[in-house]
Amino acid sequence: MKKTIVFASAAVLFLLAAVAFTPAVNPELEIGKPLPNADTKMMDVSGKEVSLTDVKGENGLLVMFSCNTCPYVKLSQSRVKELGEFTKQNKVGMILVNSNEAQRSDDDSFEAMKQYAKDQGYTFSYVVDKNSVLANAFGATRTPHCFLFDKTGKLVYRGAIDDNIKDPNDAKEHYLKDAITAIATGKPVKTNSTKSVGCSIKRVEEQ
């Protein structure tokens, strides 16, 4: 009897610990919802702290959860750099967010991010999401995972860059570019949600 009570108590403690260490990850942000944590300052590879509000352009903002290490991010690099130019042309701000807090002492450290951004020739902000706070607020789960907001700060598109993560030359649907063009010209976004394909965001609790 005593053994049963001890075992049951241990099981309860284990469950309570699991709950305590579960990250407060929201469901994926719904279309039409406002930009979350807009004024939270994050360290950019430039050495300056910036917020989403700071980066937002006249016509909106593209928030992309990314990192240095994911093979799917590496497959997307040419597209990411193209989007950097495309967003500028359409007066949309762009920011890459690294939420891999569990790898912050390794290949997703701030120093590694600075070198990666330099090697890739990034012309947009690339920031550290400390403790994955922004990823949790967005309900972001993958890298890359894209969220596009219009000029009013409302979410109009979430998901993948296009329909072919492996080869941009074989992509037939350019979801993100089409959505950016729509908000820049005051038109509705036809496809507002797709499934992001990539690596899981490495939150601390996943170690």
Gist of the model:
This protein has 207 residues and is an alpha/beta fold. The chain is built from seven helices and nine strands. It has helices spanning 2-20, 52-55, 71-75, 77-89, 110-120, 133-138, 175-184; strands at residues 42-43, 49-50, 60-66, 92-98, 125-128, 142-143, 145-150, 155-159, 199-200.
CATH topology: Glutaredoxin
- The main sheet orders its strands as 5-4-3-7-8
Major sheet characteristics: 5 strands, mixed
Look at the structure and give the CATH class: Alpha Beta
Helix content: 25-40%
Q: How many distinct folded domains?
A: 1
* CATH architecture assignment: 3-Layer(aba) Sandwich
- β-strand percent reads 15-25%
CATH superfamily: Glutaredoxin
Low-confidence stretches: 1-22
Global Rg: 19 Å
Mean pLDDT: 90
Secondary-structure element string: HEEHEHHEHEHEEEHE
| Number of contiguous helices | 7
Count of distinct strands: 9
Q: What is the approximate shape?
A: globular
N-to-C span: 36 Å
Provide a descriptive summary of the structure in words.
The chain is α/β, with parallel strands linked by helices and 207 residues long. The chain is built from 7 helices and 9 strands. It has a 5-stranded mixed sheet with strand order 5-4-3-7-8. Strands 1-2 form a two-stranded antiparallel sheet. The protein has a two-stranded antiparallel sheet with strand order 6-9. The longest helix is centred in the N-terminal third of the chain and has 19 residues, at 2-20. It is globular, with a radius of gyration of 19 Å.
